[in-house]
Design brief:
7-stranded mixed β-sheet; 18% helix; alpha/beta; single chain; 10-stranded parallel β-sheet; elongated; 6 helices
């Protein structure tokens, strides 16, 4: 079985975390986020994957190589993917695909049963099937209306609030028959949501939806990244690779800690959760609340970090306070007793001098 993984985007809404890494390679419980969906594909029987890379493609290619460590065969398509759009980029590899195949966005975290989606598509004899998740605010997604047989009758990309005729949204997971790509012009920009799906509806071709209730998060912003972390501890998002159910901490009242390798942690206080990368040093009386600390970071005694994301190779001095919603870019230094206000993004390679106060706009 074959699949296509879309991994070419820049992830601008997650800056500065995506300055030195593509969005799919952001660490999630100390593994690249894309690794979870890739392993799910392998589990359902996929043995050959075409990864559409673009921005900082070397980070993905160097990490996964030819796929042999995962027991699959990986090929990379790395030319003009962003320029060509989602469908146009996929069109380039369709000639190497023999049969029904899946296309998956690399930045989704989900417990969707991919095999059930695939079998549903085959049962419906569809040309294309879109996994549809239900959300409260559909304005950031493509939305669909389905009939009683789940055939899609209307589709609209990122509607205005007054145009939102449905809360069923495109989850970025599809099943296709190769022949549907005859509708996609070679070498031209062509998008699934803006072009291909509307064209299929215009030509009355069998386009189906697969509404599902399992967990789904497209991790578009730092807040949704932290929410996904929290959802793992709460048991909403199941990750076999991250066995947090064995931890003794209590997400609401105690402090569940998930660390990488070779960490040096002295007496510190956790509220909610702390997810900590490799080679992290934490001093005494540090307070961490609902936060993620990437690898090779040092946090000196008395610092306090609340609902924040701390990048790689960061130094946080004594008594530093970092408040809710803030993101500290890689290779930054926050000197002693400085305060970083709520929802502040500190760019990579920054140096914040002693006793400084950085406030949001």
């Amino acid at each position: 079985m074959q699949a296509v993984l879309m991994a070419g985007g820049k992830g601008t809404r997650l800056l500065p975390l995506t300055v030195y890494r593509p969005k799919p390679m952001i660490p999630f419980f100390n593994r690249p986020m894309v690794e979870y969906i890739l392993r799910s594909l392998v589990e359902m029987g996929v043995d050959e994957v075409f990864i559409l890379v673009g921005y900082l493609k070397e980070r993905i290619m160097d990490y996964f190589g030819d796929g042999s460590e995962l027991g699959i065969e990986i090929h990379y398509s790395n030319k003009d993917n962003i320029k060509l759009g989602t469908a146009g980029a996929t069109r380039k590899v369709v000639d190497m695909i023999d049969d029904t195949f899946m296309v998956v966005s690399s930045d989704v975290l989900t417990n969707l049963d991919l095999k059930a989606l695939y079998e549903y598509h085959k049962k419906k004899k569809a040309l294309a099937t879109i996994a549809l998740s239900q959300v409260e605010d559909p304005t950031q997604y493509g939305i669909a209306i389905v009939d009683s047989k789940n055939r899609i009758t209307h589709f609209k990309e990122k509607p205005k609030p007054e145009e939102a005729f449905s809360n069923l949204v495109n989850a970025g997971i599809y099943v296709f028959e190769p022949e549907v790509f005859d509708l996609v012009p070679k070498g031209q920009e062509f998008d699934y949501s803006k072009n291909l799906f509307p064209k299929m509806l215009d030509e009355n071709l069998p386009l189906y939806g697969f509404p599902f209730k399992e967990y789904w998060n497209d991790v578009g912003r730092p807040s949704s990244f932290l929410q996904a972390i929290n959802d793992v501890f709460l048991g909403k998002l199941k990750l076999p690779e991250a066995r947090v159910d064995t931890l003794k901490g209590n997400v609401e009242y105690g402090g569940a800690i998930f660390t990488g390798q070779r960490c040096r942690i002295r007496r510190f206080n956790v509220r909610g959760f702390a997810v900590i990368g490799d080679n992290v040093e934490i001093g005494r009386n540090v307070k961490i609340e609902h936060s993620v600390i990437f690898s090779n970071t040092v946090i000196e005694e008395g610092a306090e970090i609340k609902e924040a994301i701390i990048g790689e190779n960061v130094y946080i001095g004594k008594g530093v306070l970092i408040k809710e919603g803030s993101v500290i870019g890689d290779n930054s230094v926050i000197e002693d007793f400085s305060k970083i206000g709520s929802n502040v993004k500190i760019w990579v390679e920054s140096r914040i001098g002693k006793e400084s106060i950085i406030l949001p706009d």
